[in-house]
Design goal:
RNA_pol_sigma70_r2, mainly alpha, Arc Repressor Mutant, subunit A, DNA binding, 167 residues, sigma factor, 8 helices, 66% helix
Length: 167
């Protein structure tokens, strides 16, 4: 995609969902995504030439979210208030499935968010998270095994992982 507007329109929802899930819906996720797309726009010639512009935006958004969180923790004494993005519907994810994904360990949650929600390849996900593609597969396998086990306990409730319709 050569035009930033087309890139933004095509990827904004997937990036937001991925960041929201990867950060456990922490406040500021929406701002981090907006900041990442703003930076991508300012550097569009270089970002467009990147092997995977979506991965660049995701990594930038996750880094921005972490920086925001660190600044907030330094400014506040105690835990930050619960507010904002946690109350929003993260792009149509079933609430029970979303809660199960949010309960996964951080790296597994990030891999699920990037591989399944943002639809990145294992290689793109690995580059974005600075881990190998094989490690991406391991984290995804473990996360899906955990989610399947939890879903087995809620069988008949209508919540299914992608590709599990015939199981």
């Amino acid at each position: 995609m050569d035009d930033f507007g087309d890139f933004y329109a095509a990827r904004k929802d997937a990036v937001y969902r991925a960041v929201l899930v990867a950060t456990r819906g922490q406040p500021g996720a929406e701002d981090a995504v907006a900041e990442a797309f703003t930076r991508a726009y300012a550097r569009w010639a270089a970002v467009r030439a990147h092997p995977d512009p979506t991965a660049w935006v995701l990594r930038t958004a996750l880094n921005e979210q972490r920086s925001w969180w660190r600044r907030l923790r330094r400014e506040l004494l105690g835990d930050p208030p619960e507010r904002g993005a946690r109350d929003r519907d993260p792009g149509g994810l079933d609430e029970r499935l979303r809660a199960m994904v949010l309960a996964l360990p951080r790296r597994q949650r990030e891999v699920v968010a990037l591989r399944l929600l943002a639809d990145l390849s294992a290689e793109e996900t690995g580059r974005s998270l600075r881990i190998g593609a094989a490690t991406v597969h391991v984290h995804l396998h473990r996360a899906l095994a955990t989610l399947r086990a939890q879903l087995a306990g809620t069988a008949g409730d209508g919540v299914r992982l992608a590709g599990e319709e015939n199981r």
